[in-house]
Specification:
Layout: E1 11-18, H1 28-37, E2 41-49, H2 61-74, E3 78-81, H3 87-97, E4 100-102, H4 104-115, H5 119-134, H6 160-195, E5 200-205, H7 211-219, E6 236-242, E7 246-252, H8 262-267, H9 269-276, E8 280-286, H10 292-305, E9 313-318, E10 329-332, E11 338-342, H11 351-362, E12 366-373, H12 378-386, E13 390-395, E14 401-408, H13 409-418, E15 427-431
Parallel strand pairs: 1-2, 1-3, 3-4, 5-7, 5-8, 8-9, 9-11
Antiparallel strand pairs: 6-7, 10-11, 12-14, 12-15, 13-14
Helix pairs in contact: 1-4, 4-5, 5-6
Length: 433
């Protein structure tokens, strides 16, 4: 560590502030879920009403004394605040409580550190942690802020605090360079998909809305899914075949949360860019959550931060199995365009409707008709069959294939242009869509 702080532990007291600005107020139930997700053994939950936060402790001195006694009584090793603390407030509270103090940002960072699995994910978490820690170095080495005086100790030199700051800056710079390389690699992969004209669909939504469960149900994958906050950190991409559309790439992304720390949004920008470069966003919503409207607002706010709020969005109301009297359905606007789909990722109800809605939104320029392929284009014929685009086949007098097909026009153009030909050379009949 960069400075001596009380050791952390699992026995935690949670402190939730009420009376704050409504925009800054946090959800106490979500706070407890976050603490449990981090592995804390919650021994007490304390609500504090304070309209004017104290600059020194955030809370009043009387409440500081109460919490100090509670820490001793419960033998707590950690006090977690459901609020953002300044570095000085964190240090003052640690001195008063004689135990480790963590704020909301530090708690979320700890969960991210536990869940990151890939090299990129670990780098992103480390970057966010170091940037958070850099603001906490100010009071860490106060006993070494000045060079010691005396014979043999005078003159220029570097204090321990300056050394740590320099090492921290160097490490942050190294991580940023590595993440920039990852970012360019992702951009190369995206360019390749765009050249192949394969649509990218990203799952976004509030944490624990069921994105990974839905991802596994659609793609038959084994992505880790659990009933806890931030179960998914590392993005996963899988190919998905839809009958009426062909191939697309489905991306599972990190969940959002109310007041997601800006350090995390910045650190995970390379990951979140998968969402901002999508052809369609599937906004997964927990239909059983009473606060779902507030969660929807938070997701849209984060999408705005990463420049993805202008993209086409299909709302997916998940966890239908927890609701009574609701059946899987597609809800449409006045023009018949899908707006939201009600599904249960757990038992699979409504997934066919979801596939249909995705195909409708992405395949709005479908070619449905008959193509006449001469005998010499057997490879092209096989490609249409491999895509599942052929509905029936007959033959003409010259032995050519008459294929009744249904596929996106961009896919038709791509396949035919590979042979150095034009699509209109083969169209025998076209049904307008």
């Amino acid at each position: 560590m960069f400075f001596e702080r009380p050791g952390g532990g699992e026995r935690a007291i949670l402190v939730h502030l009420e009376g704050q600005d409504p925009e800054a107020r946090e959800d106490p139930q979500e706070f407890q879920e976050l603490a449990r997700s981090a592995g804390a053994d919650v021994v007490a939950f304390v609500g504090v009403t304070r309209h004017q936060p104290s600059a020194k402790y955030l809370i009043g001195t009387g409440k500081v004394g109460e919490l100090h006694d509670l820490v001793r009584t419960e033998q707590a090793e950690l006090v977690i605040f459901n609020h953002v603390l300044t570095p000085s407030q964190e240090r003052n509270l640690e001195r008063a409580f004689e135990c480790r103090v963590l704020d909301r940002t530090g708690l979320i960072l700890d969960i991210f550190a536990q869940r990151a699995r890939t090299h990129e994910g670990k780098l992103q978490v480390e970057l966010a942690q170091l940037e958070h820690m850099s603001t906490r170095l100010v009071r860490g080495w106060t006993h070494l802020e000045r060079q010691k005086g005396g014979i043999g100790l005078r003159g220029p030199g570097e204090t321990q605090l300056e050394t740590d700051r320099r090492l921290l800056r160097m490490r942050i710079r190294q991580i940023r360079q590595r993440l920039e390389k990852v970012r360019s690699q992702r951009e190369q992969a995206r360019r390749g998909r765009r050249r192949a004209e394969i649509p990218l669909v990203s799952l976004v939504g509030y944490t624990n809305a069921g994105k990974s469960t839905l991802f596994n149900a659609l793609t038959a994958s084994g992505v880790y899914a659990a009933n806890q906050l931030f179960a998914t950190l590392d993005p996963t991409l899988r190919r998905l075949e839809l009958d009426d559309l062909g191939a697309l790439v489905l991306a599972d992304t990190v969940g959002f949360i109310r007041h997601l720390p800006h350090k995390l949004v910045e650190a995970f920008r390379a990951t979140l860019e998968e969402s901002s470069n999508s052809d369609l966003l599937l906004h997964v919503i927990d239909a059983h959550e009473p606060e779902r409207m507030a969660q929807i607002e938070q997701v849209m706010a984060v999408l705005g931060e990463i420049g993805a709020d202008h993209l086409p969005i299909l709302e997916v109301y998940n966890k239908l199995d927890l609701l009574e009297g609701m059946e899987p359905q597609i809800q449409r606007d006045v023009d018949g365009k899908p707006l939201r789909v009600w599904v249960s990722a757990r038992d699979g109800r409504g997934l066919e409707l979801l596939r249909q809605a995705i195909a409708e939104l992405l395949g709005n320029d479908l070619f449905v008709g008959t193509l006449r392929l001469p005998q010499g284009l057997g490879r092209l014929r096989a490609q249409f069959f491999s895509l599942g685009a052929v509905r029936s086949e007959t033959h003409d007098e010259e032995g050519g294939s008459l294929l009744a097909v249904r596929l996106p026009r961009i896919e038709l153009n791509r396949l035919v242009s590979r042979e150095g030909l034009r699509p209109d050379e083969f169209i025998a009949q076209h049904t307008l869509q």
